[in-house]
Amino acid sequence: MAFFDIFKRNKEKRALTDDYCQTALSGLNLVNFHSNNSMSLSAIYSAIELISNTLAEIPIEVKQRDEDSQTHTLKSHSIKFAINNSQLTRFILIKCAVSDMLRHGNGFVYLNRAKDGIITELVYVPATDVTIYYNKKTRKTYYQCLNIGKVEPKDILHFYLRSEDGINGISVLKYAARSIETANYVENTALDYYAKSGMTTGLLKAKTALIGKQASDAMKLV
Q1: What is the three-class DSSP state of 142?
Q2: Which long-range contacts (CB under 8 A, 24 or more apart) does 160-167 make?
Q3: Which of 64, 170, 182, 222 is the most interior residue, by most CB within 10 Å?
Q4: Rounded Cα distance, 1 and 87, in Å
Q5: CA gap 149, 147 in Å, rounded
Q6: In this predicted model, what pLDDT tens digit does every residue of 72-131 receive, in sequence order?
């Protein structure tokens, strides 16, 4: 993809970044869409690209709140090192998480820590690889991540916009199901039209039988 050219990374990191993006931009089980072709609908693809790219371009600042509840921007913090030390660029990391949040309702970034607890790396985790477990009785939450294992809330960033329980996010696309279904029908109709070279098919009805010149004249009007 063209936007990878703005990052001065080696070929190996670019290839890895591309794989992560393809994972984040595939899969949406909504209305009549299959998980493998959801992004083929231009309405969904364009909206997700616009929102995720815009949010990914916003700079990240680490702030600290003092005793007077005043916030101050920290020029140096371990999280900045962790971002630069990640396999993905900051832009792609946020883009993938936001994309998952919009499509699946949840976006996740795992915080890889050293033995002393310092965050050393931010790892994008596809939403489809994470299961959220919440115990209503104890009000305890933990995450089960594929290839990582059990993760405590302090070790993962969980992004969501809408939620009915404050734990599990709900895709914003769920609330636009009718509009998305309409857009799907429109694109399918256009595809069918151009696949037939712009020729329409149907039946010509008349109140009386058309023969000879009447029939040929009627066809010219169609």
Answers
A1: strand
A2: 160/101, 160/105, 160/106, 160/107, 161/101, 161/102, 161/105, 162/105, 163/105, 165/134, 167/132, 167/134, 167/141
A3: 170
A4: 17
A5: 6
A6: 888 887 888 888 888 888 899 999 999 999 888 899 999 999 988 888 999 999 999 999
CA-derived radius of gyration, the chain: 25
Q: How far apart are alpha carbons 121 and 155 in whole angstroms?
A: 11
Q: Which two tokens stand for residue 191?
A: 């595809």
Q: Which residues 6+ apart lie within 8 Å of 2 measured at CB? A: none
pLDDT grade for 176, boundaries at 50, 70 and 90: low
Quote the tokens at residue 195: 């696949």
Q: Which residues contact 123 (CB under 8 A, 6 or more apart)?
A: 86, 87, 109, 110, 111, 112, 148
Q: Residues near 90 by Cβ (< 8 Å), separated by ≥ 6?
A: 56, 60, 83, 84
